[in-house]
């Protein structure tokens, strides 16, 4: 039985490689390592071991560790975008309600996937990825842009309002994950987040022209 299990494992790995799924398996392995041990746990060798292939295999798909991080970031942004959009869709639909929902979704993503959060914001900000990144990166920022839009006055630079919202929730998320509000931290819906994001209630929706 043990021999059969080993043989099946090798066949599965060979099949994944044959069908072009090895890259996806390595990305999945990298995400798993991040979820378990944070950014310091991520390495090409560990990803290869987790995926059940030779330590040289990642070189066929990634340009070093930086290439693996970029691939993980692309997958991470898909998940991040989903968190933000789902939070906005499920909460109150008035302008301030959507701001609150976006912030809650942002923090929840950080709590559920702190390693991925560290990777996707490792080298550049979210706003810079709208033009330089892929669809997933743009989707995440455009969700923020849509939430901020009701507060942008005619002639005002929309980036100012977007940055107010983004800076507050991103900074809060990092502090929350660092244990600044206690360890374990307080619940999202009954803790300092509610009081902090209330600062954004000072934003005034622009009346339709």
TrEMBL record:
<keyword id="KW-0238">DNA-binding</keyword>
<keyword id="KW-0804">Transcription</keyword>
<dbReference type="Pfam" id="PF13305">
    <property type="entry name" value="TetR_C_33"/>
</dbReference>
<dbReference type="GO" id="GO:0003677">
    <property type="term" value="F:DNA binding"/>
</dbReference>
<dbReference type="Pfam" id="PF00440">
    <property type="entry name" value="TetR_N"/>
</dbReference>
<feature type="domain" description="HTH tetR-type">
    <location>
        <begin position="20"/>
        <end position="80"/>
    </location>
</feature>
<dbReference type="InterPro" id="IPR025996">
    <property type="entry name" value="MT1864/Rv1816-like_C"/>
</dbReference>
<dbReference type="InterPro" id="IPR001647">
    <property type="entry name" value="HTH_TetR"/>
</dbReference>
<protein>
    <submittedName>
        <fullName>Transcriptional regulator</fullName>
    </submittedName>
</protein>
<feature type="DNA-binding region" description="H-T-H motif">
    <location>
        <begin position="43"/>
        <end position="62"/>
    </location>
</feature>
<dbReference type="InterPro" id="IPR009057">
    <property type="entry name" value="Homeodomain-like_sf"/>
</dbReference>
<dbReference type="InterPro" id="IPR036271">
    <property type="entry name" value="Tet_transcr_reg_TetR-rel_C_sf"/>
</dbReference>
<keyword id="KW-0805">Transcription regulation</keyword>
